[in-house]
Specification:
The complex is a heterotrimer of chains A (105), B (177) and C (640). Chain A is mainly alpha-helical and 105 residues long. Chain A is built from three helices and no strands. Chain A has a single domain, classed as Helix Hairpins, CATH 1.10.287. Chain A is 74% helix and 0% strand. Chain A starts with 6 loop residues before the first helix and ends in a 13-residue tail after the last helix. Chain B is mostly helical. In chain C, strand 1 and strand 2 (84-91) form a beta hairpin. In chain C, helix 9 (231-246) runs antiparallel to helix 12 (278-285) and helix 17 (398-412) runs parallel beside helix 20. With 640 residues, chain C is mainly alpha-helical. Chain C has 26 helices and four strands. In chain C, the strands form two sheets. In chain C, strands 1-2 form a two-stranded antiparallel ribbon. A two-stranded antiparallel ribbon of chain C has the order 3-4. The chains are: A mainly alpha (105), B mainly alpha (177), C mainly alpha (640). At the B-C interface, helix 4 of B face helix 26 of C.
Chain lengths: 105, 177, 640
């Protein structure tokens, strides 16, 4: 617990951060920036886990562990995404999601 | 004191997040993201989870951001400037995000969380024991699953990013940079 | 009652032959199919004659009436304790008489067809269908109950359809086959309703129970009334409509002339001798019921028969196609049988009309089959159906000529040939019952002589035409049956028919009435002399008469425009009045609904397709909107 800081304040910060990530996800066209927005959203969620752990269940480390797994999964995701970005760049000389719509067909 | 540090961290996180999302230069955006991640690591330290903060710094700030910067450098000019998104898109996304944020923050204000009182156990020992405990309440199975996931991702990333000789190997500029 | 179990083979044998020749028709040599079919029908001929011999030579029971024998009665469908459908064999004088007629004519036609149909494509198919027809016809006449007779009734309809359409590459034959099937099917609807009415009220299909003279089975139907007549009368009239359709009674006759599109031996067998008299047989089979129902149903039968007889005879005088003349002649003669049944009473002398009708059925089958087969020989010789292409053929076809002459004399009713006796009995029965019908019958007798000898003189006398190749006499397999039938036409009249067939099964003595015999003969001879005067030598007189009669001649030549009336009714009333609105409804409302659903689906899918843009961020927008929507619904609106 941080003295003088309530849980709700922390959660407000993480919520705002999450929606900033959502905004970036929706407005950006570049795959890499979309990936970065995604990281923001993930971190917002991680802060939530940690804050809940600290404020509500101090006796067990589950929230920390979730945050740890989250970081691991995020690392995996980024590694794969970067591989895809590079491959895509080789193919169409761009990393613009609007040009990647072959899924439609 | 902690309260002031928390507000500073919060302000840093939010402002850098916004800048990272709004910046038109890719590399800058990545640097802002680096700042956000570092500030979050600071928040973890502040809250007393030192191990988590260390992991956040090494894996996120040290690994993922570096990866992102690498990929930016591989695919773009350094001073590449992205076009501004069209206003309709900005309007839709902005409206959605503002509405969502207002809704959730408003929900938070009325929420009552009940605390389970217990002696604080946040040292590395507890984390390690829980993580590697095969018994009740342990996380050994997810731990192993994540390790297999990491292996699979490594293989997958290599396969995806590898130069395909069967596809169009006649063009020399397609050689891996 | 013992010793008739073999009769089941009379039905089954042609069916087996049909299966064998039908299944193997493309595998075996056509001649072999012909021989199998002919052999099969000859076996049934022997069995039929044996049955007749056994039945009629046995001593009469104590009450003096011929017994009804049911040697085979297999329970087929059991609806309730009382309403059971059997399949079986019923032997009584009229069914045995029909057996003999069918087996003789069918055998002759089979033998004749061996020559006539030679080298036709579809020879094996032809014999398979003939066997199918024989099977159905035997099953029909031996039926023990209404349901079985209906079953085989439809089967003869099908085989008739198949044989009329034998030359299925000819559009006119296909049209004729369809016409025959649809018209008789239409009539059979009445038959079916009649059967259902009768069985509903009586609780049985069996002829034995229905025909029981005490009238117990039909009491219920007789007491219930509907629109001023008893239900029994309605049922019997409906059943008669079925019979009228099959027997080509006016106004359901229109299919019979067109049915002449089939091969000529088929016309002889089906459309002259056997199937078309099924209607007469049906009325005769239910005759006790008709009698017990009161006079109305029989009155309908009598007048329908009389009108048809006159109507068809008038048309027959004007027709040019040799087979059509014979077809109208057949209609006229069946009308004769019907009117004879209609004027008959029950029991003793009163039942003369019944006996006369069956007698005429028997003799008519012989001489009409002979006429058709003779016509077939003529057509075979000159390769044309039209009388205008014939003339002076007596020199080329002496045997056919002789047989044809015998048949013409027989149908005209010249003593002592068979037609004289049966026609005489009919006239006597008509005179005692109803003088008006007698008058019509007498007129028809004269007209019969006139149109038959018009045909005879124009084909065998008259001016000799320039034939493409010299007409030649038919081979032995063709003139052999002619001789057999001619002999039967000559001697058939001497059978003491009243001894065997009478309305109440009692032995009845028939004694020709001199006055009627003389009158009828004089009328017939007058008809013959008129025909001889008009047609023996080429002359302009017939054309002058036709011209002076004007519209009457024209309308008779055009078959009194019955076909046109039917077409008009069908086109205007059914097509224009009912079918077109129904089609419009179907096309616009029913299909429209379906199309609207399809269009709606297509429209929705095109809208949805727009959603699937492949743009990940649009999907994400949808996702976010969805999540926020859920939050609004569950937390702000439903307040969980």
């Amino acid at each position: 617990m941080i003295p003088g800081v309530s849980l709700i304040e922390i959660l407000t910060v993480s919520t705002l951060m999450f929606f900033i990530g959502v905004y970036g996800f929706l407005t950006r066209k570049n795959l890499i920036t979309i990936l970065m927005s995604l990281e923001l959203m993930l971190n917002g969620a991680a802060i939530n886990f940690v804050a809940f752990n600290k404020y509500l269940y101090p006796g067990q480390p589950n929230g920390q562990l979730f945050a740890l797994f989250l970081i691991a999964v995020a690392a995996c995701e980024v590694a794969l995404a970067i591989a895809i970005v590079i491959n895509l760049y080789r193919k169409i000389k761009a990393v613009d999601v609007e040009q990647v719509n072959t899924l439609k067909h | 004191m902690e309260k002031i540090i928390f507000y500073i961290l919060s302000a840093t996180i939010l402002s850098l997040s916004l800048m990272s999302v709004l910046s038109r230069k890719l590399l800058r955006s990545a640097v802002y993201l680096f700042g956000v991640l570092t500030a979050i690591a600071g928040f973890y330290f502040l809250i007393g989870y030192h191990f988590l903060g260390a992991v956040q710094l090494t894996v996120y700030a040290g690994g993922i951001v570096v990866l992102i910067i690498f990929s930016i450098l591989l695919t773009h000019e350094i001073d590449h400037q992205m076009p501004t998104p069209d206003w309709s898109r900005v309007a839709v996304a902005g409206a959605l995000c503002v509405a969502g944020a207002v809704m959730f923050v408003q929900l938070l204000q009325g929420s009552l969380f009940s605390r389970v009182e217990a002696p604080e156990q946040s040292d590395l020992n507890t984390v390690g024991n829980t993580l590697l405990n095969p018994g009740g309440g342990g996380y050994l199975l997810p731990f192993e699953v994540v390790s297999i996931l990491l292996l699979a991702v490594m293989i997958g990333a290599i396969v995806i990013a590898k130069q395909r000789h069967s596809v169009d190997n006649s063009s020399p500029e397609k050689q891996a940079p | 009652m013992e010793g008739y179990a073999f009769t089941i083979w009379i039905i089954l044998l042609p069916f087996l032959v049909f299966l064998v020749t039908g299944v193997l028709s493309l595998r075996i040599r056509p001649q072999l199919a012909g021989w199998i079919g002919t052999a099969g029908i000859l076996v049934t001929l022997v069995l039929s004659l044996l049955t007749a011999w056994n039945y009629f030579s046995a001593a009469l029971p104590a009450d003096g009436g011929w017994p009804t024998v049911i040697p085979v009665n297999y329970t087929w469908l059991r609806f309730s304790e009382t309403l059971v459908v059997h399949m079986g064999v019923l032997l009584d004088p009229i069914s045995i008489m029909m057996l003999v007629v069918i087996s003789i004519v069918s055998s002759m036609v089979h033998i004749y067809s061996l020559g006539y149909m030679k080298d036709e494509p579809g020879y094996a198919r032809y014999f398979a269908f003939l066997s199918l027809f024989s099977f159905s016809m035997y099953g029909l006449v031996l039926a023990t109950n209404l349901f079985q007779i209906y079953f085989f009734w439809e089967l003869v309809g099908v085989s008739s359809y198949l044989l009329i359409g034998f030359y299925y590459d000819r559009p006119s034959a296909v049209a004729a086959a369809k016409k025959a099937f649809i018209v008789t099917r239409f009539a059979d609807f009445g038959f079916l309703v009649g059967i259902l009415l009768l069985s509903w009220y009586s609780g049985t299909f069996d002829f034995l129970a229905l025909n029981n003279p005490d009238g117990a089975a039909i009491a219920g139907a007789a007491s219930a009334t509907f629109m001023g007549a008893s239900v029994l009368t309605w049922a019997l009239v409906l059943i008669f409509i079925g019979g009228a359709g099959k027997s080509a009674m006016f106004p359901l006759h229109i299919w019979l002339p067109d049915a002449m599109e089939g091969p000529t031996p088929v016309s002889a067998l089906i459309h002259a001798a056997t199937m078309v008299v099924a209607g007469v047989y049906l009325v005769a089979r239910l005759f006790p019921v008709y009698h017990m129902s009161g006079g109305a149903a029989l009155e309908v039968v009598a007048w329908t028969g009389a009108i048809t007889a006159l109507f068809a005879a008038l048309i027959a005088i004007t027709q040019e196609d040799i087979k059509r003349v014979l077809a109208y002649s057949t209609m006229s003669q069946i009308g004769y049988m019907m009117l004879s049944l209609g004027v008959s009473g029950y029991g003793g002398e009163e039942g003369l009309g019944y006996t006369a009708s069956m007698f005429h059925l028997f003799t008519h089958a012989m001489f009409k089959a002979l006429l058709f087969l003779g016509a077939g020989a003529v057509i075979h010789a000159v390769h044309s159906n039209v009388m205008g292409d014939m003339g002076g053929l007596r020199k080329y076809l002496p045997i056919t000529h002789a047989a044809f002459l015998v048949a013409c004399l027989a149908i005209a009713g010249i003593p002592p040939l068979s037609g004289f006796f049966s026609k005489d009995e009919i006239l006597a029965a008509a005179l005692h019952h109803n003088p008006a019908i007698y008058g019509i019958a007498l007129l028809v007798a004269g007209l019969t002589a006139l149109y038959m000898f018009r045909l005879y003189f124009r084909v065998f006398w008259g001016e000799e035409k320039a034939y493409a190749h010299k007409p030649h006499e038919a081979p032995l397999v063709m003139w052999g049956p002619l001789m057999v039938l001619a002999a039967l036409s000559v001697v058939g009249g001497f059978i003491p028919f009243g001894h065997y067939v009478s309305s109440d099964r009692q032995v009845m003595a028939m004694h020709p009435e001199m006055s009627i015999a003389v009158t009828a003969s004089v009328v017939s001879i007058a008809g013959i002399l008129l025909a001889m005067w008009l047609y023996r030598k080429p002359s302009a007189v017939p054309a002058q008469i036709a011209g002076s009669l004007g519209s009457l001649y024209q309308s008779a030549k055009n078959k009194f425009y019955i076909d046109e009336i039917y077409m008009g009714v069908t086109k205007k009333v059914l097509f224009g009045g009912i079918a077109t609105p129904v089609a419009w409804f179907d096309r616009h409302i029913v299909d429209g609904t379906m199309n609207a659903i399809a269009n709606l689906t297509a429209w929705i899918s095109s809208v949805i397709k727009g959603m699937q843009s492949g743009q990940v961020q649009q999907y994400a927008v949808g996702f976010v909107v969805g999540v926020l929507g859920l939050v609004v619904i569950f937390i702000y609106w439903l307040k969980f």
